[in-house]
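Worked example 2:
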Amino acid sequence: MWINYLKVGFRNLLKHKSYTLINLIGLTVGVAVTILLFFYVQFHLSFDSFHPESESLYRILRVQNGDQGEVRFPSLPLALQPVIEENMADQVDYTNFVPNNFLVKRANGDGFNQSVTMVSSDFFEMFGYKILKGVYPKTADERGGIVLSELAAARFFGDEDPVGKELQVRITDELLNYSVVGIIENAPANSSLSYEILMHDSNLEIQFPENMRTHWYMSFGDGYAKFKNGMTPETFEKQTKDFIARTFQDQQEAANYGFGTQSMTDIHLNPEIPTGIAAVVNPRILWILAGIAGLIILIACINFTTMAIGNSASRAKEVGVRKSMGAGAGQLFGQFMAESVILTVLSLGLGLLLAGLLLPVFNSLMQTQLSLNFSLDQVMILLVIGLVIAFLAGAYPSLFLASFRPVQVLKSGLSLKFGKQNLRMSMLAFQFFISMMLITCTLVMVRQMKTVENYDLGAAKDDIIQVMVPPPAAQGLLDQIDKSFSYAQPFKNELRKFPEVSNVAMATAMYGDNAWFSVGFREPGKDSGIDFHLNIVDEDYVDFFELEVLEGRNFSLATPSDQSNAFILNESMKKALAWDEVFGKSLQSERPFGENRAVGVVKDFHYESLFQPVEPAILVMKPENFFQGMRNLTMEDQMIAKVYIKVKAEDKQAFISKIEKVWKDLYGSDPFSYSFVEDQIAAEYVQANSLSSLVTLASIVALIIAGMGLFAMASLAISSRLKEIGIRRVMGATTTEISLLFNKQFIRITLIGVAISIPASYYLMSLWLEDFAVKTSIGVGVFLLSLLVGVLFSVAIVSFETVKSAWVNPTKLLRSE
């Protein structure tokens, strides 16, 4: 029976070519967009689920109580590992995950500024990353062995087998030789952790002195645990809290310090924890995208349903004849559902093909690595989309057509004004509601991103090149900082000789690169502490970035003590300290700072993205005196000098080639790495810009699908009133008057859709803007522009169809009737 239904269904679809084509195009486009969006959401929801026993894996968090309440940090002190190994070895597998950038090279080969991550031996057993070849270092005695990812192996060794070969890594004053002992698969795209070269974390003894490795307030990387033998997050938190209480002499300090846990599968979707090494996405964005996908497929289904009901007049006599010949309602329902299934299958196939063609563009737009791999999750999504289309779009029209009474349709026919006119118009209004809501959201998002782009950060950002200094061989943090500045100084001196260079400065950080220290201290006699960000700079930094000095002065080489003990604070830091006067004042800590004195205050400037308000900050030339009094110190990146160059040259690439030559003359094979500060700033808003672009495209798709529905509805409405149009033309009605007659009805539908979309879009955009510290206003103009777009779109489509019919000779219209 179903074979017969499908044969007849194909014949009917081919017979009504325009109807079939409009439905097929609308469904195909809707399916393609929906597939990409749902696959993208599924990809992010799948993060870290590939690990065996992922429910037992946790990231350990450092917990501190302060003025802002309890704050959880992903970065940990290295002192935690021995505590776990000595007290919980039977119940907890633990690994450090400390990323670094070191100069790595083959003997007599070029070097790379390479990501090298130090991990414990448990890392290779806890997670689901597969060792493809060789082994991994299991003990400190084997710390001379390193494991390469497939990507790193190809970079250094090409097609050669790297196992057993050596690489040189500059951790100390000399290049150290490491033997490649294993190859590990590249981290999957849906992994929170990424790596290229892995070495045993006993190498941290080479990188950091003992006092830094045992310090409870110095944090250098993440830590991950796998709980077993009855260990729970609550038990772990209690046991570590008890240890801190026994270890810390100050019980108030111990009460404010501890460790917490975060499920591995929660890391990627939890923006409430400060971003650390692992990539994080705001789940709100995923729900927005899932909602857009649902709306897109919904309006495609509504388009299908509206046209099927509108086309029912042409199928009414067919139903009457079939019922007169004995066909039951169930058989008719099956016939019409067969046509729906055919269109569904065709649209799924074509939609999947279109999604595959659009995938590279989508990945570029969303900065992702999505692939159509037809995993179980992806197959289930496709099946659900198909079932939704088949039943949501096909079931109601099939029931509706199967319910016609044969006497009525055979005796008097059926006009387009039969009882379901209001339903068709309501569905058309709903399509415009979705389209106008997306258009309004697009306008607000574009406006917000323009606000972000044009916002005055309070510091220079244009025509600035940042050159990365390779990590120097150093023992300890202070030594690393000092040596990186000394290492870069000759390059800075040479740059000043170029006529294209207007200024040069050095610093460990500027915009959004995770290289500002997060530090804090507690003033004597106070229970709460002061947290702020710290940046190490040279004497040219303030002038280079055009920071406005509000009080005091800039650093000066004419005052030698500035290099050792002077600091400049921003307005937010002055407010946090509650200082009225600044010049000459000193920071006071329970753990005494070295000699320090404030020499100036700069106006607040944004050194983080505009998602964040300006936080307290201090600039220093030498950090040693300040580190002494810190209660906590967290670093997410290596604190190495960067050289900032302000360029006047029109041809910047030619200029970069020139300074690269200078670099090679000074530093030989050390890698030359640069970026534009403007690009770094833009990278902070990739996710927001991608969402804005995606909503823009979705609104265009929604408007096109709604337009197709409106076009079909207008065509059907006009074709049912051709006789009326002919009579009106004979009676002297103009084309404009006839056009207005039909436009009134459809403009009313458009206005209803726009009116309903206003509160919905306002609510959604208010939620989205909450993520920004600097935000635009949602003005009336946005809604007026959306209204104008909707009305003009509706008028254009309806007027086109009306004018086309009105220009036909009225005698032909009347004769045809």
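The CA atoms of residues 118 and 201 lie 5 Å apart. The two ends are 39 Å apart (CA to CA).
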